[in-house]
Every structure is written in C-alpha cells, then in structure tokens.
Amino acid sequence: MKITHEQWASKIGFVLAAAGSAIGLGAIWKFPYVAGTSGGGAFLLLFLLFMVLLGYPLLLAEFSIGRFAGSDAVSAYKKISPSSNSHIIGLIGLVTCFIILSFYSVIGGWIIIYIFHAISGSLSRLTVEQYNVFFQELISNPFATILAQLIFMIITIFVIARGIQDGIEKVSRFMMPALLILFILIVVRSLTLENAWEGVRFIFYPDFSKLTTDAILFALGQAFFSLSVGMSIMVTYSSYVPKSQSLPKSAFSVVLMNVFIAILAGLAIFPGVFTYGLEPSAGPTLIFSVLPTVFEQMFAGTLFMILFFLLFLFAALTSAFSLLEMIVAVIIKGDSSKRNKTAWIVGLSVFALGVPSCLSFGVLSNVLIWDKTIFDIADYVTSNILIPLGGLFIALFVAYRFPKQQLLEEIQLGSGVTETFMNIWFILIKYFTPIAIIIVFLDAIGMLSFLK
Q1: pTM value?
Q2: What is the mean pLDDT of the chain?
Q3: Buried b (16+ CB within 10 A) or exposed e, 179-196
C-alpha cells in the first residue's frame, strides 16, 4: 500500500526530523574527542571531505529511494526492483534499527536519571572520582536503569504513535531549535572560561603529525555513521516528502547541521575540561563523570548541567524516533489506523529486548559473548557489521538496480540541479561510496590492522 495520507507538513519539518535522526549521541561525546586527539583542524578537514564524498551521496541515495517509492523501506526496494531480492536491504535495516534502539534506550535512561539527580541537587559538590563512582553505581542498579529505560521508550512510543505531522514533526520542530539554543548558551559560557582557548585549540589546531591511519579510517567511518545512513531510516523519512521539495538541498542541510552540532559539542565541552585541568577522555566517562565536574565549578553550574543533559536527551530522543518509525512503517505499510497499536507493541518489544543490555553492567556483567557484554555485542554487531553492509547494499542498489533515468528524474524534481552535479553524484555513489564502505567494514572487523 502506497503511503499517500501521511506527509511532512513543511520542508523545514522534514529537514529538522532528518537532522535529528542523524545528530545522535556519538556526535556529542565521541566526535569532538577523536577530532582533538587526531589532528584537530586537520582531522576536521578530512572529515568534511569524506562527508561530501561519502556521507552526502549515500544520504541523497536513500532520499531518492524513499520519495520515489513512497512506501516503507522493505516495500520501497521491492517496488523499484520487483524481480530481485533487494527488499532484503530493508529487512537488514529493520533488524538493525530494532537492535540499536534496544541498547540506545539504555543510554537514554541514564540521561533521564542524571537530569533527575541534577534537578534534585544530589550531583552537587562531587569530585571526578565521586562522579565516576556515582556513574558505576548507577549503571549497575537494575531497578533504576530499567525504569528509566522504560520511561525513555514510552516517550519515544508516544511520539511515534501520534504520526508524522502530529508526532515526529511537531516534536522535532521544538526539540531541534531547543537543542541548538541550549548548545549556544553552553558554548557562550564555556568560551568565557579562563583557559577556553586551550579547549578550542585542542579541537581546531591543525596538527598533521597526529593524522595517523587510524585517524583517517575513523574520519571515513564517522562520515558514514553520523548521518543515519545504512539502516534505510532516511528511505522511510523521505517517503513522506512531497515531490516539490529539493532532495539535494535537503540532504545538504542535514549534512551541514550535523557538522555544525559536532563542532558546537566540542566548543561546549573542552574549554571547561582544559580550564579545570581534567582529562579529555572519550565516551560515557567524559559525559557522565568529567563534565558534571566542569559544570559544578562554573557560576550557575547546576543550571548549565541540567541544560546540557536536556540537550543530550533531545539528541537521543530524535534519533530514537527515527529508529522506531522505520520499524513501525514497515509493519503498518501506510495504514495509519494501525499506527498507535503497532507503535506500542513494537516499542515495548524493543524495551524487552534491551533489558539484558541494561543489566549487562550489573547482574549480567559476567555474561559474555566473544568476550563482550550483551550491551557491547549489540553495539558491535550493528555498528561494525549490519550498518556497513546496509550502506554497501544501498549504494549498489542505486547504482545497478534503480533505473538510472528514473533515479535522475527523481533527484531533479523540485531541485533544478545541473547535469554535471548529477553525473558527479552518480559516479561517487557507483564507485567511490562502495569502495569507501568496504574499507570501513574491513577496518571495523579488524582486517586492516596491518596498516596501523
């Protein structure tokens, strides 16, 4: 059944929702750190280059598939190439979204707990070591973390159950500007700190001596992963886009917002880290143990801590919306009468699947698969195997299964892009993108270790 009765109400609504999907937790806590330790400005230039050559072409490819087919991700591939088994690409995306949301919601729950404790004042006047102890005790607490994970999923389910315009678009039109405003407030405050320049230098100073093979491969992978491509999420979101909207411009806007937020994250985090002589370590430790110490030492620090975790929650939720929407859209196949019930059944099923990941820091910490916890194995399988494979298959599908004339006409609708642009984009998606994704995949599974 073709999706005809649900569309984005406005161009900006689609762009904000797509950008919200792309701007996830990794852009806020991982990208700034790796940029700083991998050459700063040199790494940023490389990342921008890969975003243009890899991220943008693949994002536009997913947009083209979705709007042309006007249907859910599984049906879209089948509609464009009915004689092949290309619908398997959509099924890979469905499984990927299901698994990712199951452990993504665990982190969302942690953020909710931190907001509660920040508001209550129980996070005040602690040292880095005490914050680290608090974090470790928190993630090993089965009752608190499962309850918070459930709350995160209920919020996500509620929004998806309300549909495209009244749910995702309405919330994204609030959350994305709010996220941007909160970021700017924190950045302005961070840049007024005593050693703010050291933090700025950490991120932007071009040190080409630190641009190692690892850094280059990470820049390549980050350009791919940071746009929510490879899971057919953008196929789903673009299926609600009217023919009058320019897909190339929308894709460019999403890329631009993603890069801008990643840079803002660095400017928000590292001036304070360097001002107070803290270690700019990556991952959860930075967000949940180091940053609260930074905010604690600022004037009105508790307020800025609450604001930061709110924007962190908004980033997590907008990504969660897209993950759940992709799954729901496949099941309801355009029948909006089934949306509410399906959203709750699927959402609660995702929550149930995520409980073992939630408990892998406590009662199930000794349960290991390939020497990894349940949480880590879910992350590894999706990030290192399923997403790269999905992205590779999407690129090959567009290059070899999507009739070229129909593909180019779809991209030109509402955009008026030149033939030169179209030819360059098609060359990138046919040759460069598959090769780049294969390199990312081989690196992710450890087959390029001889280069390091």
Answers
A1: 0.92
A2: 88
A3: bbebbebbbebbeebebb
